[in-house]
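Worked Example 4.2. Read the sequence first, then its structure tokens.
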Amino acid sequence: MFSRGKLPGPLRQLQMDLRKLMLPYTALKLKEKKRNNLKDFLNVAGPMGVTHFLVLSKIKTSPVLRVAKTPQGPTLNCALVARRIFSRILL
């Protein structure tokens, strides 16, 4: 689970919530840098046994969640219309 581009605060929180949801099969403390690109993540995916990427990005119209199968699988693009973070759902 990583992002492409700069995410606003609520989407950053959604990204962390999705990482917590996917535990223990995701890296909760993954550090992303501006200079990282998709190739960098693909290069480490094979040795680490990563089979899918969840990529969260913000475009002009709405946020987009992409689910991609590595290394050359299909990609599912989903526009996020409504979203709730865990802190608003759980009491």
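Now turn to a second chain, presented in exactly the same format:
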Amino acid sequence: MKRTINKRIKRELFSNFWKYFAIFMIIFASVGGISSFFIVQKSVKQGYEDSHKIGNVEDGQISVAFPLEKEGLEILEKNVGSYEKQFFKELEYKKDKTIRVFENREHINLPGIFEGKLPDKENEIAIDRCFAEQNKLKTGDEIQWKEKKFVISGLVALPDYSCLQKSRGSLLISNTNFCVALMSKEGFASLEDVVTSYTYAYRLKTMLSEKEQSEKFSTIFEQLSEKNIPVVDGIIKPLNSNISYVKDDMSGDVPMMYTLLCLITLVMAFIFTVIVKSTIEDESPMIGTLLALGYRKGEIIHHYLMIPMIVTITAVILGNIMAYGFMKQFYLRAYYDNFSLFPFELKENAYAGFFTSLIPIVLVFVINYLVLVNKLKFSPLQFLRKDLKKYGKKTASRVYGSFFQRYRMRVALSNKMLYGVMFIGIILANLLLMFGLSFRPIFQTYLDQIGETMPAKYQYIFRGPTTEIDTNKVDQFTYYQVESKDEFFGKNLSISIFGVPQNAKFFKSYELQKNKIEGYASEGVFVKLKAKIGDEIELYDKYKGRNFKVKLVGKNNYTATLAIYMDQTALNIIMGEKEEFYNGYFSDEKLNIDKNMLLSEVNGNDIKKIGEQMLIYFKNLLPIVTSVAGAIYFVVIYVLSNLIIDRSSLSICYLKIFGYTKKEIENIYLDVTTWIIFIFQILAIPVMRILFKYCVLISMSKFDGYIAPNIPWMINFVPFFAGLCIYFAVRWLQMKKIQKKDMSEALKEIVS
């Protein structure tokens, strides 16, 4: 008997081919895209971990103002297993690009070689592969710096710079404008009149937890400070974004991909349930007959599960074939374009195929099975009579208005579940579209704010106080870096503290009381620490291994970073420095500072140039995201509005018999959906804005900076109008379908 009833499956599939094909394509594309991501992600993760072993990556680094002498080196030897000096110099290349040059490494942070060789001559240089590809450089080409020319001997990747950030924790990753490179000892020495930064990378004797590593770093810092050796920077491996960002990025992308797959599958699963419920209602007399003839309800459930499972399993299999076949190259290229990874082999793994198959199949099966069990609770007699009302309610809800108004209301009420699923699908599609459209303008606003909200046009940080500059033109400040815990995600955040003097030229609006530990914080500090004005926040001094509190008395204008501005004397006391200590200048003019004293120079225009390169990635992402959003929207609207027409086929035929015109019938059935979608699109705007802000916070949680998720109001209306355009295309198809409805269907029903 089972085989007899299953003969209907093929007929059902082909009679509703486009309906099932639309769902099939969404599941197929979702599984293909997400499975290919997991294939590549697993290989990248393994290659990333292998690069740390092969390259003997550092456990931490410490930067000092001047090279360590005997006392300082003895402190390192006492506290770590091994260390290596990794001094670097920065060269300006083609005006807007920076090349950070190191000497060849011997045993820590060893490079991975893509092609060529490491430099062994004075005029040779090995550069980062990402930078070379972005700037169309290859082995054998020449790089000119001033009057000197260096031949590119090889393309490499450094394990301590898997993410090319000029400043750690920056939101800006620039493979186009920033490069790391290696030179021979003679070549490095030939770079005269260039500031040298003195960094020592170290490996610990044993593997330690992050907390133990921080304590060890604090011990080294304190012992160096006791010997009056100025430490200007330092960090442990887990907190070094140049090393850990790839891992953090993958750990953030994996749950995001799982969530996306689950959301899309849930929407498709509920569409299947709506189709199945509608089919059961239409075929209830047949189901009643089968039950009366001895069919078990389990066999009926099995039959109605067949089509959703056939469509889902076919989509999953073909999606994974596409992923394992060629689509994985798309993600592989994306990782290689964005990160400076070691050469690695892309290995096939069953993990991706297993989970991207399991999730859709299980979700579709469980949801449809539960709906079918609930829907088939009725007796054979109830099925024969089409009496499938669960609560046995005999009277319909009272509605008011003209005949057409009451009819439209009845159509809406009888299809409320379909409209509910439609609303969820609209939210998902619009949210994806808003992501694609909003990230570029949001990031552009962030770049504009960097220049506009900086206290001064130039910010200089140096190794110690200098007397070369006319202090009437500048504001001296003390710079210190601390950490705090992100209240949303529990991540350690790097926060910059600026100690500014009383009556500072660039901070006239700040009412800072001398010696008081209070300050003005940026918006990002308030958001990420869930703080408000008047609160005390706890900060961690990573150099001295202790906590201290700062009271927030106001907001500063520098919204583009995590920063606190407080009284200079109070900060100097926290740091254990003299009252008159300072290590930075704010200036509206470019200053001529001894390069040997300069640690960093921040210029808003330079940062903006780097950021503009990142906008290229968002530009390439836009067509992909908008296409996916449009496809989901079309499928949801097309399938569900089709179901509404199918469920009302008999009523439409009756209206035709009673003499209602095509226009009047369209007004009854299509206008209801039009108005509901119009209302849904309006309701979706505030819902999307709330969801979008949380999504931005999640996607940016791996950065120490802060991007305000302020969506331009015009973008809110793009999904609105795009959705309506897609709907009216679907409406045109529905009009054609209504015109084809045959009055003989109603007459046959009456006779039967």
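Notes for the reader: The chain has 20 helices and 20 strands. The longest strand covers residues 474-485.
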